[in-house]
Amino acid sequence: MLPNIAPSPVALPSRLMAETEEATRAMASFDAVAGRTLTPYNSLLLRSESAASSRIENLTASARAIAEAEIGENAKVNPTMILGNVRAMEAALAASDTLADDALGAILAMHRALMQGSWPAIAGRLRLQQVWIGGSALGPVGAEFVPPQPEDVPPAMADLARFLARDDLPPLVHAALAHAQFETIHPFADGNGRTGRALLHAHLRHSGVTTHVTVPISAGLLVERDRYFAALTAYRQGDPEPIVACVARAALAAVESATVLLDELAAVRTNWASTIRARSDSAIWRTLDVLVRRPVVTADVLAADLGASTVTARVHLRDLVAAGVVRESTGRSRNRVWRAPDILEVLDAYAQRVGRRC
C-alpha cells in the first residue's frame, strides 16, 4: 500500500526552500519576458518541452519530423508519439484552471491526449493490471520498483487529488511532490512519465508561476536523467528532498537554455526581416512569425494560420523561397510542403545541447 500524502506535513531544509524560491522567481521572470514578445514562442516552447519529455523515455525525432507530423506529413512512430506528448501538454494547460477541483479528470484528459494516437485502448483509463519498473518483461521478479496493485490505484489517485487541492505549499515544492507521487502510483499501463511531467506543468500554470509560456523543465531533467530517476527512487524510499532539488535545478537550467533558444530564434527572425522588401502592413511579416513557431507548412496550413486565402499563402511562400527563408521539400507539383531550415537547425541544436548529460 502507498502512504497517503494529502494530509502529510511537508518539512524541507531552508537551503532547499531557498533553491525552490530562486527557481520559481526565474521561471516567473522568464514567463513575463517571453510573454511580452511579439513573436509567438509559446507553441514552440511547448513543443520543445514535449520533445524533451519524450526523449527522457528514449523517444527521439528531429525537429523537422515533429513539425511534419504536426501537419500530417509524417506518420512514423516516434514523431507521432511525440506529437501525442504535445497534445498532452496542451490538455494539461487547458485543464490547469480545474486542477484543484477535478484533478483526476484533468490527469485522465492529459493521458487520453497522449495515448489516443498510439494506444487508444488504454488512453485516459486507469490501469487494470500490475505494472513494474525494470527487471524482466515477463514478471516483476528483480524489478527496481513495483507500483501499487490495480485495486489500490483509485484511492491513491483520490489522495493525490486532495494533495493537489492544498493551498499551503510553495508552488514548485507542491508540483515536484505531486509529480513524484504520481510516478509512484504509476496509474496507467503506459505513458506515466510523460503524463506526470505534463501534470507538473499543469500545476505551475494553475499556481500562476507561468501564465504565458511553457518553461521546458523536461529539458533540464534530461540533462541529469540518471539523477532524476534516482531522485524518484529516493522519494519512494521516503526521502522527498532529492526530487524537489532535482526539479528546482531543472527549472533553472531550463530557463537558461530556453533564454538562449529564444535569442537564437529572434536572431533568425531579424535576419529574415532584413531580406524582405514589403509594405509594413503586408501579411508576409506575419508569415515570418508563423514560420518561427511552425517551421514546416503547407499552403493550406499557412493560409489557416494567417486567416488568408491559399492563393495569398502561396504568393508569400514563393517570395520567401526567393528570399532564401523557406525551401520546398517534396518536389511535387501538388500537395507541396515548405520548411524553414534556419529554424529547424536552431531547434535541433537546442535538442542536442540539452541532451548532453552530466
What fraction of residues sit in β-strands? under 5%
The main sheet comes to:
3 strands, antiparallel
N- to C-terminal distance: 34 Å
Structural class: mainly alpha
Q: What is the CATH class designation of the largest domain?
A: Mainly Alpha
Helix content: 55-70%
* CATH topology group of the largest domain: Fic-like fold
* Count of folded domains: 2
CATH superfamily of the largest domain: Fido-like domain
Which stretches are low in confidence, meaning pLDDT under 50 for 5 or more residues running?
Answer: none
- What is the count of helical runs? 15
Count of individual beta strands: 3
Please write the string of helix (H) and strand (E) elements. Answer: HHHHHHHHHHHHEHHEEH
Protein name: Fido domain-containing protein
Domain Fido: 102-249
Active site: 186
Binding site for ATP: 190-197
